[in-house]
Amino acid sequence: MERRVRLRRASHIRQVYEDGRSWKHPLLILIARPNGLDLTRVGVTASRRLGGAVARNRARRLLREAARLLYPQIEKGWDVMLVARAAILTVKEPQVEEGLASLLKRAGLSR
RNA sequence: CAAGUCGGCCAGGCGGUCGCGUCCCCUCCUUUCAUCCCCCCAGUGGGGGAAAGAGGGGGGCGAGGAAAGUCCGGGCUCCACAGGGCACGGUGCUGGAUAACAUCCAGGCGGGGUGACCCGACGGAAAAGGGCCACAGAAAAGCAGACCGCCCCCUCCCGCUGGGGAGGGGGUAAGGGUGAAAAGGUGGUGUAAGAGACCACCGGCGUCCGUGGUGACACGGGCGGCCAGGCAACCCCCACCGGGAGCAAGGCCAAGCAGGAGCGAGGGGCGGCCCGUCCCAUUCGAGCUCCGGGUAGGCCGCUAGAGACGGCGGGCAACCGCCGUCCCAGAUAGAUGACCGCCCACGACAGAACCCGGCUUAUCGGCCGACUUGGACG
RNA sequence: GCCCACGUAGCUCAGCCGGUAGAGCACACCCUUGGUAAGGGUGUGGCCAUGGGUUCAAUUCCCAUCGUGGGCU
To answer: pTM for this one?
Structure first.
């Protein structure tokens, strides 16, 4: 994904965690908050609980790839954090995409 | 052919579609004249380009042998200089390599294996000194030690020629037993019984000499006293080495805030002490403690280096010198991914974060070379 | 990324210079009581995180590994 639409500032991420609503799926968690802009920004994260650097890189890449493919279908004007859960390491990309799509529908962010 | 030893290399491949980071080029647009260059004007103003940013297109490059653990050693940065002594810490056979090392190479010594070969924190424990050696055992470390046994003497009892038993005194380290360890081994002389008490040989120790080697050490010979326990990964002694912190080092720019109370004559550079030295204080107050407030942005450091590859030369080797060619990640919530097809042995451990040299640990397998042992055939 | 500290009974911790591991709480049983709590007594429970090394002997000394917690912008 382009860096322009990524959530990169620590202060922005903190705001999402503090003010955002969350939706859970066995593979990932989605946290979102309106940002008042005309574009949506996405951040990804994977905690140390998931494993070593290779496992965490794998988890983040899967989340980024799913978000890239679904980005045109996401409502504008949101800051979104995607948090990886351990089960994500056992699946392939299309399943992550499916999980993210269902979360977006439940959160009312898909159009 | 089987079993094994040592060393080196590789770390799925190819094609297609979409995607990411960085650098460069082209194109188009925007911003500003603060900086640089050019032009116009002479009203210190105007314009163009460079520059910076956004979009589009193209090209180059883009994780590892361990990138890991952070266990050593350096470079680099800051602490005024990195100075002296003590303390503390580290290393520990010899010679060499190296920027340096606890690493590497060669050799010595000791141990293991039929062998190729592998393993070793490998200075000093008798004249520097202190300490410890539990339990068991009679005795456990500078005059070692008599429990059983063995031997001699005395008294008593049984039997009464020879013998046996009990008690006491003494000798004895050959035998038994305890222990991780009991103060050389074998044979002899000797003796009441014994003993390095004495003798021969062997082992080991010390010392002197000779030969070889840079040296550790090896070999040979003479002399000595008969023999000297273990632990320095306990303190310690000897030799050598080490100033401290770490790229979140350190420097620059921008933004932002609010100070107050107490202690106070010394404080800091510096982790401990002393010396030396420098800086700030003792007037208006250095510094310390407590309460409260602000920031969480950008740029540099940041990758061309003890660099990689090839050749030649020196050296047993580690490695070094010279020449030629090449540029090989620099991210900052952190870039290598997703999907499809084909092939094969169906893919392990695992992701740079300032950079190198090592060590250690994890790891599916595959390939190549040298060598050892055993068997069969010619 | 860098720098530290700590792993001992179910829990919280002792164990100084190596000699065979304890305390408190908890648990089980007994005494006390009409019964319980408290109190007293007895007992159970440990690969001393893991693997090597030094030593006659290691929880202790040394090395490596694994895990947990903390600090530095």
So the answer is: 0.79
Tell me, what CATH number does A97's domain have?
3.30.230.10
Q: Which positions of chain B lie under 7 Å from any protein Cβ?
A: 19-21, 54-55, 63, 67, 296-297, 332-339, 350-352
**Which residues surround strand B, with CB < 7 Å?**
A 1-4, 6-11, 13, 43-45, 52-55, 57-58, 60-62, 64-65, 68, 92-94
Residues facing residue A32 across a β-bridge: A21, A80
The total of structural domains in chain A comes to 1
- The secondary structure of residue A36, as a DSSP letter, is S
Percentage of chain A surpassing pLDDT 70?
94
C-alpha A79 chain-centroid distance: 10
Interface predicted TM-score (ipTM): 0.81
Q: Which nucleotide has the shortest C1'-to-CA distance from A3?
A: B20
